[in-house]
Amino acid sequence: MTLDRFYPIFDHSDWLRRMLPLGVKLVQLRIKDQPDDAVRDQIAVSRELCRDHGAVLVVNDYWQHAIDLGCEWIHLGQEDLDDADLKAIRKAGLKLGVSTHDDDELERVLAMDPDYVALGPVYPTILKKMKWYQQGLPRVTEWKARVGDIPLVGIGGMSVERAAGVLEAGADIVSAVTDITLNSDPEARVRAWIEVTR
Ligand SMILES: Cc1ncc(COP(=O)(O)OP(=O)(O)O)c(N)n1
Ligand SMILES: Cc1nc(C(=O)O)sc1CCOP(=O)(O)O
Ligand SMILES: [Mg+2]
């Protein structure tokens, strides 16, 4: 399966309800600091919304809910991977996307046979505090050479204006949060993203 090149990330299923009708085909639900039952409910709603719109849903962090709810994709970062039951995840047929930020992390995840590898932050991000400031485009090119046929996701400080450069540098997919969610017209921004990535 070829994943769409535009990969927005949202923190509530309401965002998916708004954005999927515009043509989003790959989307991550990334919920933080919510009660567990609320998270589960939102994953279930998002799964249905994505099914209705022919889109791929990636569940961030909550791999057990993803298994229980019959989801198809999860995204796990390095610390998530410390606690996750990879055997159970694979047994359930879940596809796995992983985060990387340096050489050691990349070596670690390549041994896990991931279904995509994310590299970040390509540009500085305002979404969360990170140890890394920015990887830059040459690092995207290096990562693509190292991951080979595994799809490479560029994340961190992405914008409509930066997307083409990141794809030209070697990313297969570009992922964005605040460029959309903090925009005064998120729908128009998503349309612009779709235009530059298809
Ligand atoms: C596509 C994509 N790339 C990286 C991340 C970050 O995952 P992680 O390092 O586990 O951090 P949190 O998102 O859980 O704060 C991601 N979610 N998606
Ligand atoms: C969630 C996340 N993970 C990153 C990583 O590098 O692993 S950067 C990031 C935030 C992306 O948000 P924005 O598009 O607003 O910069
Ligand atoms: Mg995580």
From TrEMBL:
User: Is Transferase one of the keywords UniProt gives this record?
Assistant: yes
Annotated Thiamine phosphate synthase/TenI domain residues: 13-180
Q: Which cofactor does it need?
A: Mg(2+)
Q: Which SUPFAM superfamilies match?
A: Thiamin phosphate synthase
Descriptive protein name: Thiamine-phosphate synthase
Reaction(s) this enzyme catalyzes, per UniProt: 2-(2-carboxy-4-methylthiazol-5-yl)ethyl phosphate + 4-amino-2-methyl-5-(diphosphooxymethyl)pyrimidine + 2 H(+) = thiamine phosphate + CO2 + diphosphate; 4-methyl-5-(2-phosphooxyethyl)-thiazole + 4-amino-2-methyl-5-(diphosphooxymethyl)pyrimidine + H(+) = thiamine phosphate + diphosphate; 2-[(2R,5Z)-2-carboxy-4-methylthiazol-5(2H)-ylidene]ethyl phosphate + 4-amino-2-methyl-5-(diphosphooxymethyl)pyrimidine + 2 H(+) = thiamine phosphate + CO2 + diphosphate
Annotated pathway: Cofactor biosynthesis; thiamine diphosphate biosynthesis; thiamine phosphate from 4-amino-2-methyl-5-diphosphomethylpyrimidine and 4-methyl-5-(2-phosphoethyl)-thiazole: step 1/1
The answer, when asked if Cell membrane is one of the entry's keywords, is no
Give the enzyme's EC designation.
2.5.1.3
Q: Which GO terms describe its molecular function?
A: thiamine-phosphate diphosphorylase activity
Q: Which Pfam families match?
A: TMP-TENI
Classification from the root reads: Bacteria, Pseudomonadati, Pseudomonadota, Alphaproteobacteria, Rhodobacterales
